[in-house]
Structure formats: structure tokens, C-alpha cells
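User: Show me a protein chain along with its predicted structure.
Assistant: Here is one chain, sequence first, then C-alpha cells.
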Amino acid sequence: MQIVIAILLFAVLVLVHEFGHFIVAKRAGVRVEEFAIGFPPRLFSVRRGETEYSINLLPLGGYVRMPGENGETTDAQGNADPRTFGAQTARNRAAILVAGVTMNFLLAWVIYTGLFAFQGQQHLDYAYVAGVVANSPAQTAQLGANDRIVAINGSKTSDSAVIHDLIQTAINSDKTNSATVPITMTILRNGQTQDVTVQARRNPPQGQGSIGIQIGQQLRYSHVPLYQTPFLGIQALGNNFTVTGDAFHKIFTGLIKPSEAFAGPVGIVSIAGQAAQQGPVVVLSFLAYLSWNLAVVNLLPIPGLDGGRLLILGIEVLRRGKRLAPEREALINLAGLVFLLSLIAVITFNDISHLINR
């Protein structure tokens, strides 16, 4: 079931992204030879006019195939072809390249706006102990399920992510080099507040965390006037940038490992399964975040991605229309593709390692 849900999410993201490229290319007069969901081998295809629409076996992406994607302006016989991508003006080529990420941003915004209209604005109510690992420091300290976490070392918070950061910061700040670091957790149990000292481990077993608890997050919702929901949707997109920037900050400061911050296809399948268990609202929220993430990643100036192609186009404009040779541009994009596939392989290996060691 996890795999099915993940495939459906991937399909929606790819369909929306590639449709952006497709519709703008068509409007610009570019000949679109194929609109594909997934990568070959091919499962099904149908031709309508000059375009072949195909569904392929590997559901990890898609493509809109146009002649002249590496800057060629002629057909196979060497004749000038005004309907190639390469024959378009810089403005039209930029519009085609940007259209995919624009559609992904738009999808994320529509979902967020709809969720605000349907359920209201989300607020963090409190964090709590959702589970305790056997023979862990948390069990030794007699932490129990449903204990509300009020503060860590005196710092009050209702955010489960902040609790994790506070614990890790305390461990990193301790200079004793001991195997454990005492953490004072303020909890609320049966209506009474109490302090509990937990010996956080510097090097815990894989998948257990430093103190051995699963942290749950209780949410509450407040009504939002309908006219405010589009603006809150935009705000949610901005919050994603903040969250991502915070993740990179945590990596650079040692709060989290890079392998904990990024997920590949296998990791996304696992997260999709967890989201499905929590209901359609969580699945839609996850889809919105994935759509936003796909847009941001595609804008990175890496050859082979839309951002890399935009960078090459920008260099062309700065050189007053002087283009790279098509063969050189194709080689640059191929190198970028090899790099991306290698990165995906590394991330996928880490995802599988995490699943095995749970």
C-alpha cells in the first residue's frame, strides 16, 4: 500500500510539472514529440497528432521530449526547423523551462489554500511522549506514554522538533566527553508538573534517539475567513523555505546528520506510508511539500535540471546571444545527469540502511 500511495504521489507531481513544460511549449509553437510519465521501458502509449503520450515503468520522473533541447535549430537532415526548442527566442525558452516549477509551486499553493479553507489554521498545542524504547534512558527515568513535555533544561516549548534540537544542543554543548549527558525534562503527568533527569546517550543505537522516546505532536485548529486562505497558502510556501534553511543550518552546526535531512525514493515511500496512516489531510500536506520541494530542487543551477538549463540560457543572454555548441551543451547536461543519478543512488542507499536498522 505504501508503494501504491507513493507512486500516485509521484505521478501527480510529475504530471503537473511536465504539463507546465508541455502547455507552454505548445503555445510557443514548439513541436512536442512525447509527453511521458515515468521512465522507460514503456508500458502504454497513444499518439494524438504530432505528440505521443506514454506511461512508463519506472515512476521516478517524466519528460517532455522536444527537438532541439540541447540548442539544435535544425532537423535530422540539417534543414532549419523553426519548431525546435533551440530555435525559440531566449524569452520563450525561459518560459518553457520555468513553466514546470511554476506549476509545482501552484499545486502546493492550491493544496495549502484548500487545507486552510477546509480545516482552518494549524497550531502546535503540545508535545508528548508517544512511546518509550525498552531498556532506554527514558525507561530508566520512568518516562511514560502520554507524558506531556513542557520544557527541556528549563526551555519551554510545545514543538516536537524544537525538543529534539534542545536535547541535541545540550549533548553537543557538554564538554565532559562522558558517554551520557544529563537532561532535565519538565513533564506534565496527571495534571502535575515534575522534573525528570534523563541520561541522554551520545551514541545511541540506530533508530532509538539519544533518550529513547518517540515524540508525538498534538495539534489544534482555528477557523480562518475564506478570503484569508490564499494569503495563508502563500505564507505556507514561505514557511517551507524557512524549514529548509533551518535544516541546512542544523547540518552545518552538527545538530543532525545529512542522511537524516534528505530522503530519496525509498525514504519517500516510507514517509508516504506513515502519512497515509494519519489520513488524507496529512497525505495532501505531504504532497504539497513534495511539490514545493520538487520545484525548488529543479531550480538549482545543476546541469540537467531546469535551473541548470536556465543558467546556460542566462550565460547566452550575457554573451549577447552567443550560444554554446549543441554538442558541448549536451555533454554538460549529461554530466549533470550522471551527478544527479549518483546522488540519488547514495541517498537511496542511506534510506535502505535506515529501514534495515530500525
